[in-house]
What does this fold into?
Amino acid sequence: MSAALVVDGVRCAPLEVAGDSAARRRGLLGRDGLEGALWLAPAKQVHSFRMRFDLDIAFVDPTGLVLHVQALPRNRITRIVWRARGVIEAEHGSFLAWGLQTGSRVQLP
It folds into this structure.
């Protein structure tokens, strides 16, 4: 399923939705890049093992508040963000271009 990532009221990028457990497990594995972003929910922690590119990661609470943002190099794992409902993943550098940061509000499917 695809939608749009809206950050602080501005439509920023296409958004893929990992709609089932198989899609969440697969995530971005096997891809050489990503146009836009990927929404994984539920998720409180993600990894970048066997990824082909570095990631930007945003943990989002149930109200759409971005709780934590980080760059995630390949072959690493994030800390657990207990209050997160899900995670937005994008190619490293995308969040800066979109203005997505801790404290931003996002609209998600």
About this structure: The chain has two helices and seven strands. The longest strand covers residues 10-18. The chain has a mean pLDDT of 90. Helices lie at 21-26, 94-98.
